[in-house]
Automatic annotation (TrEMBL):
InterPro entries the record matches: ARHD_Rieske_2Fe_2S (IPR015881), Cholesterol_7-desaturase (IPR050584), Rieske_2Fe-2S (IPR017941), Rieske_2Fe-2S_sf (IPR036922), VanA_C_cat (IPR044043)
Taxonomic source organism: Chamaesiphon polymorphus CCALA 037
Pfam families assigned to the protein according to its UniProt record, in alphabetical order: Rieske, VanA_C
Coiled-coil residues: none
GO MF annotation terms: 2 iron, 2 sulfur cluster binding; dioxygenase activity; iron ion binding; monooxygenase activity; oxidoreductase activity, acting on paired donors, with incorporation or reduction of molecular oxygen
Protein name, entry field: Aromatic ring-hydroxylating dioxygenase subunit alpha
Superkingdom field: Bacteria
Domain Rieske: 6-110
Organism ancestry: Bacteria, Bacillati, Cyanobacteriota, Cyanophyceae, Gomontiellales
Alphabetized UniProt keyword annotations: 2Fe-2S, Dioxygenase, Iron, Iron-sulfur, Metal-binding, Oxidoreductase
Length: 321
């Protein structure tokens, strides 16, 4: 799993002044905000006796351990040990690990380092998320699968006619033709025109007559982002997803769904159900894949023309550690 990169790990609106535990790459980390709204990230287990700081509270912007009341500043240094006199020296070793953290595009970003990074890069820029999309909703989905398997599934056009038949895959037209690839320093995308299917539900009121092929673009950015853009006759649907690697076999996908049609709140429920349905259709397939961990050797599995985006991901990703 990749280190020395910014991971999108949580939604900005999920973090307040109460400590919140997150898990990533087998680590337990606490997120919280100071009184002025600054986001902070610190290891969960107190350096003293290993109690969970996530069960503590904030006092003057210091996080307080619920076991013995030790307090830690935002830089991780201990500011108070209640059991000793106020004049006593606090050991220099009484310091917690803190992490570079920021927020952008609706997500909290965490920089995970293996110590080799000489400097911390700035948060990534995605102009696509700065275009002022009209309406958005968010949610999350849990998988019993490695995050790279989950991520690669989001780059796979060819499974749509089979796994998502009737939703956005046309089983009568499974061919994937004329993939247009665009490469970036830390990612790639592919554009294809997929055969349309008859609209259902609310969407049938927006479409009349025979439907032309639907322009669809999907891609990824290291280490854990995927996006899907669907250009419909009546507007654009975009889903950006941060696939958070909890551990080797558990992933939480935190997604944001943008749409330029049905922009009232009344349509949010339908948009949410459609998004979750896609994940639910994918889940049994992805969780059944073996080996569970993608091979580090890019030649260990077979590829055809429709797999070009997954192959590019495997070439760009850092070796699993």
């Amino acid at each position: 799993m990749s280190k020395n990169l910014w991971y999108a790990v949580e939604f900005c609106n999920a973090i307040g002044t109460s400590p919140k535990l997150i898990k990533i790459l087998d680590r337990e980390i606490v997120l919280y905000r100071t009184a002025d709204g600054r986001i902070q990230a610190i290891d969960n287990n107190c350096i003293h006796r290993g109690a969970a700081l996530a069960n503590g509270w904030l006092e003057n912007d210091c996080i307080v351990c619920p076991y013995h009341g030790w307090q830690y500043r935002t830089d991780g240094t201990c500011s108070k040990i209640p059991s000793q006199a106020a004049t006593a020296t606090i050991p220099k070793s009484a310091k917690m690990t803190v992490y570079p953290v920021g927020e952008k595009y609706g997500w909290i970003w965490l920089f995970l380092s293996d110590g080799a990074a000489e400097e911390i890069p700035t948060l990534p820029n995605f102009p696509q998320l700065e275009s002022g999309t009209i309406r958005s909703i968010q949610g999350e989905f849990h998988w019993n699968a490695n995050y790279e398997r989950v991520l690669e599934n989001g780059l796979d056009f060819a499974h749509a006619p089979f796994v998502h038949a009737g939703a956005f895959g046309n089983p009568d037209r499974p061919e994937i033709e004329d993939l247009q690839i665009e490469n970036y320093p830390d990612g790639a995308s592919a554009t294809v025109y997929l055969a349309a299917i008859p609209p259902k539900g609310l969407w049938k009121f927006l479409v009349r007559g025979e439907r032309a092929p639907i322009k669809t673009r999907t891609g990824f950015f290291l280490p854990n982002l995927t996006f899907l853009e669907v250009y419909l006759p009546f507007g654009q649907l975009t889903i950006w997803t941060a696939h958070v690697p909890i551990d080797l076999h558990t992933t939480v996908s935190k997604w944001i769904n943008f749409r330029s049609f049905f922009t009232g709140k009344w349509a949010d429920g339908d948009a949410y159900k459609r998004t979750i349905k896609i994940f639910e259709q994918d889940q049994p397939i992805v969780e059944s894949q073996r080996p569970q961990i993608i091979p580090t050797d890019v030649n260990a599995e077979l590829y055809v023309a429709a797999d070009v985006l997954q192959l590019q991901y495997r070439k760009l990703r850092q070796p699993s550690i």
